[in-house]
Amino acid sequence: MAGNTFGQLFRITTFGESHGAAIGGVVDGCPAGIEFDEVLLIREMQRRRPGQSQIVSPRNEDDIVQILSGIFEGKTTGTPIGFTIQNKDQKSVDYEKYKDVFRPGHADHTWNEKFGTRDHRGGGRASARETSARVAAGAIAKMFLNKTSQIKIHAFVSDIHDIHLDRNYNLYDLSLSETNVVRCPDPTLAQKMIGLIEETRAQKNSLGGIITCIASGLSVGLGEPVFDKLPAVLAHAMMSINAVKGFEMGEGFASAAMKGTEMNDQWSDDGKLTSNHAGGVSGGISNGQDLVFRIAFKPTSSISSLQSALTASGEVTQIGIEGRHDPCVVPRAVPIVEAMCAIVLADFLLLTKTNQA
Amino acid sequence: MAGNTFGQLFRITTFGESHGAAIGGVVDGCPAGIEFDEVLLIREMQRRRPGQSQIVSPRNEDDIVQILSGIFEGKTTGTPIGFTIQNKDQKSVDYEKYKDVFRPGHADHTWNEKFGTRDHRGGGRASARETSARVAAGAIAKMFLNKTSQIKIHAFVSDIHDIHLDRNYNLYDLSLSETNVVRCPDPTLAQKMIGLIEETRAQKNSLGGIITCIASGLSVGLGEPVFDKLPAVLAHAMMSINAVKGFEMGEGFASAAMKGTEMNDQWSDDGKLTSNHAGGVSGGISNGQDLVFRIAFKPTSSISSLQSALTASGEVTQIGIEGRHDPCVVPRAVPIVEAMCAIVLADFLLLTKTNQA
Amino acid sequence: MAGNTFGQLFRITTFGESHGAAIGGVVDGCPAGIEFDEVLLIREMQRRRPGQSQIVSPRNEDDIVQILSGIFEGKTTGTPIGFTIQNKDQKSVDYEKYKDVFRPGHADHTWNEKFGTRDHRGGGRASARETSARVAAGAIAKMFLNKTSQIKIHAFVSDIHDIHLDRNYNLYDLSLSETNVVRCPDPTLAQKMIGLIEETRAQKNSLGGIITCIASGLSVGLGEPVFDKLPAVLAHAMMSINAVKGFEMGEGFASAAMKGTEMNDQWSDDGKLTSNHAGGVSGGISNGQDLVFRIAFKPTSSISSLQSALTASGEVTQIGIEGRHDPCVVPRAVPIVEAMCAIVLADFLLLTKTNQA
Amino acid sequence: MAGNTFGQLFRITTFGESHGAAIGGVVDGCPAGIEFDEVLLIREMQRRRPGQSQIVSPRNEDDIVQILSGIFEGKTTGTPIGFTIQNKDQKSVDYEKYKDVFRPGHADHTWNEKFGTRDHRGGGRASARETSARVAAGAIAKMFLNKTSQIKIHAFVSDIHDIHLDRNYNLYDLSLSETNVVRCPDPTLAQKMIGLIEETRAQKNSLGGIITCIASGLSVGLGEPVFDKLPAVLAHAMMSINAVKGFEMGEGFASAAMKGTEMNDQWSDDGKLTSNHAGGVSGGISNGQDLVFRIAFKPTSSISSLQSALTASGEVTQIGIEGRHDPCVVPRAVPIVEAMCAIVLADFLLLTKTNQA
Q1: Chains in contact with D, counting 3 or more C-beta pairs less than 8 Å apart as contact
Q2: N or C: which end of chain D has fewer CB atoms below 10 A?
């Protein structure tokens, strides 16, 4: 067990259920001397917060992070940073009806079998509410990256259902992604995506999509062979996020249909690589180019259309999931992806300090 | 650092360079009392071995595994199983010319920057020769699975370049995959794939492809939330294999274009799920259905076509990589994928013993 | 870094400074289905609490543990148990004078050098107030042991300064140790110890002592060779407690002056060992006898006698430490020793489930 | 399980049984660029080797370490260093008689219960022959310390049975300890110790003793609070060595009988500490003074006097252990203590690189 810790040197441990008293966590291993940037923390939490727009869950949580330790006189001290996020708008009574029903696409059944019990309220620990602690921890990782590196991480929604951005992200002004509620850098497609999400919700259905994440400013050398290559640990981090079904670096699955002459990134006379098919890694180690990866999210499992579910007593029943769900989790997952990416890179930056004598 | 260990309870540590004295490793945490199945070990090593067919590297290694500890009177004793695999057919002289050249698509440059040095001979530790130790460790994991579970793992080549199997693997007799050198269960497409690989090699080029892996017989409950979900750890394992660029579970990237009503697996009246879009996991935990995942491999970086490479002194030079390379790494990667899958499942089987009081 | 986590499967992570907002922690890996015994938790916290008697620090903390997650309907759910303990009676102003002074025997100087900063208030994270989280986590470990084993842990004060109990603990009724404030099972010696502590405090000085810990009811087989032998991990746990300077199992240091014929425990005709010189372990693994170990505590570093201290600017100054200190930390350390012992044994009980196929 | 790995960043994994094919291990995380000092490696192995003198086991092993990876052109490359040490002089037939007998003081019984089996030949993995891999790994750690720090480690025999050196090690010329076979820096007492050991062996008995270890040249700041304090991890390392029953830092158990005014190390006007009662640590972190710790070894369990042992069928039998045993393990344990100390310090040196931003 003990699966609630992630990272080796920059390490996060989280706890908390959707309808419990609080979500929280501990960041251990953040070096001393980092300015604590409360504005950054609040901004990241707001980006993930439910109720932020018309296309997300209306659950009303202010998601204020209470820092309990590890910060003194405005800076990190090298001691663990404990924090909590109160749950305020639990409506557990909404979930009484699901107490003895395993919802399709959810963790209800597997969790119940695994542990012999579960906190059924709002999905308990399997709820994506758990990710609020990741975003808080990721904000601290971003503070570390801001202080000690040139790394900038930018994730955005590149695909919702059948609406796709071009895979060449250089065609877009990525800063526009935070100017609309779906977090897509193409304003026209963003409106189409928003419309499709609203329409789908009205149809009692849900949508999947893809987040593309770009990290720039990496030094050469991040990633630890052979098992902890940068893409391997990133994949671990991303595939641990609720509803994620796929991960790819650079050309990813498309590379399976390419030839060596097309895929290999070659050097130009100025000593720089002329392309970035690999997505910023060579042999599993950062090569100084932009890190580029994509994460596939399935459509939200909770839909109000009727579906066949299993009861605890082994019968099948028809249920439509009422409650305050996102018709598409992808827009709110953007800060979660960035948070996990920041944590991975912070950890590798620290590990890399020990590569040479 | 210390990235050469994988797993928590069933844990492997590997060592060795392509042209060093030996590859080897240690399996720690394998329970006592498992029959040591030497036939299985030899078979797995043969499946990965270079020189096994006309479409792979002709390097001549017999890849005999010497077990040094942990087995007594034909069974595991619960102590670490150390093993070595001698390197016999090193032709290091072939690599003298690459000593001061960083090859496109390879780890040469990043590794050199990271460590300030590298064993350039045959790619050193970045060579896929490293994976021979994974296959040996995976064979031990398979012995454990055979003894203590119903789990069977079957990986096969489902796609080479633009030749694709149907994604519904139930259409095929998977046992046929080991009857041809490309490891594809459709004999007709297998021949096409083989022809395409040979043709591509003749053109001094290389090909990518996709491996699909099916694991059946899992109990419900494997995977440790929230960071060590089954897909997360599988992705970590698979993305750590050389040349892998993508990983997906079940519908994977296709799920991003699906709706909730299409993606959710529902229960039928007999208490079983009627579909397996999720790929055998619910909420990141095994649900008892077949585990289904796909891994994308890029085309081999080593091609004999001329490419622009960087020299250690910062100049660009044209090189064609001669030597004994696979024109497509995918067929030989099949046993590696199975090995890593077996290690992940063995580890989770052990972890799961501690979930309930 | 990341030194704030202990344990492999039953794993605790703690945070918090002496004068920060709260102390807290996360217990991850506690199996599901354990009854949550709040009475036990409160009792353990009361045993460690300052202000409990005339011979300990008068700091007034009620040390109520707020459980934030992981418990549902009175039982553990297998998810992480997050908790906090508010700091209420901080008198940070007392410590302003030590802001730029490194106190003798304290972590002030080393911590400041290590991290380039420190929270000087009350010793910050280096304060033994940190151990309140250990006791809370240990109480959960005890709940697990109570549910799943016959293990009982009993620590007591066997030595204060030059007042020593006989090393044969069978001579005493150990249950008496909790009937006096010094936690010594011999009522007469207990009164002497209390008198000596009070007298020493009046002399502006402090005392050291020894805690003996007995754990009974262990099954054979706890401990993981070769690095995680039971005595090794116990020593790690105990030596991590503030003010501990020594650890020994069974005869311990005395065994260095014994001969093989004296030290070896031999079997009698009923298949039981006739002595327990080893302290309950053979080859580093529990042998079913009582686990017996002793922990040496140095005298409290904070004394009100004048001592030479170093200032941040490199000068030497004379200081007497005022404030609310224990003249002898040993009585309050008894529940801390038990807590760490419970955590170690809980972890090994879980690990042991995976030793055989 | 998985107890055969030690360390976080500088990490060793070992394998091998006393009478198996080989002992071996993997050092992972040693930074690149360290000169490989073969002379140092051979010297350390010789210090631990059986057959080196008249007071140790006559088993004839040359203990040559074969390095299989991780070294290229005379330097470490940052990749794992795999190595093996062949077992050559196994006389397994000597142990046939112990196949179904659990020897007093040995791991036979506990191991058998734990794993349901054991390699009984020569104690299998529980044999101190396992420590040859520790010494090899420790030699690599020493190479790292030599290259990157001023740290020097010196262990010596300070006590054999009732023959004791003064605890003030500054009274001795420590370099003399390697000039006699018992490794005691006082030549006169050394001869007494040797005489006592020989005499005791003739009496079919064995002796215990104490090793004192001094490490000088540490920077301030090694050790990671709160669980991985320097004394805690050192104790873990030392208590994992065969036959060790106690560990203490500085005044150790004697501090339990001291007062605060006696124990606290105070600063003199030149900014230096005037005493070292603490043994080189303050608050669990190195303070720049000599690290001083002592390790108690019990007398060898294997003695040729008759003792009561348990048979596998539950009966008691009288046995005298014949074979090639050390009458006192302490002299040969000196390099093992140094090796584990070097590994701990190497690990902390790497960890310390990440304490500050």
Answers
A1: A, B, C
A2: C
